[in-house]
Amino acid sequence: MSILSHRQFDIGTKFMRQLPAQPCLLCGAASHVGLCCAACDTELPRLNAEHCPICALPTPSGSVCGACLQQPPAFDHTVAAFSYDFPVDKLIRALKFHEHLALVNHLADALAQRVDTRPDRLVALPLHPARLRERGFNQSLLLARRISRRLHIPLLPDACERVRNTPPQSSLPWKERDKNMRQAFVCSSTDVRGKHIAIVDDVMTTGASTGELARALKQAGAREVSVWVVARTLPHTH
């Protein structure tokens, strides 16, 4: 069950239907409910199948997967709105690499609706300053700001920083991604001590980035760390 107020959400839906229709981003049909029409939104690859509660990979009956049992990651729980499949993969790339910032609210709201546990604070996966200057924005921070407003959970925008300008994870083989992210983050905020922190990011593939940030948060005193991602890469999409 979502922690969003159903009453507020219903009022927002009625208001949206009174606005002029806009072309659906995916099919071009008239949409009164946002960037995607109701039909396309229904067909998006939501992560509804049973999955590991720690890493969100598919498992029978929603049990903890073997990998998390053998080598538990630094984070304790993962929430993902979608699997990283078409067309969600295209939407995320359009946001991340082509500055389609109008997608932020749509993707963040889809993630917020999947949340059923309220953490104490949110943090966004940080970019290295050099990468931030190159891109001009941090899509994870934009998503986190939207979710913070929707769910009324304080955001700590400066609690963590990326201190190593590593190559993009997507450019590396899976086996090299953990090594690439080692000691890439530091957390100097005292506001995480004893608290449940949720990391917001766009995509989780191996979990190396979020795992390393979770490790830094726990070293700074965080009691529990969850990961909230718009999409989770599943084995068949590798």
Automatic annotation (TrEMBL):
Coiled-coil portions: none
Residue ranges of every copy of the Phosphoribosyltransferase domain listed in the record: 140-231
Protein name as catalogued: Phosphoribosyltransferase
UniProt cross-references to InterPro entries, sorted A to Z: ComF/GntX_DNA_util-trans (IPR051910), DZR_2 (IPR044005), PRTase-like (IPR029057), PRTase_dom (IPR000836)
Record family assignment: Belongs to the ComF/GntX family.
Residues annotated as domain Double zinc ribbon: 20-69
Glycosyltransferase keyword on record: yes
Cross-referenced Pfam families: DZR_2, Pribosyltran
Keywords (A to Z) from UniProt: Glycosyltransferase, Transferase
Record-level Gene Ontology MF annotations: glycosyltransferase activity
Keyword hit for Manganese: no
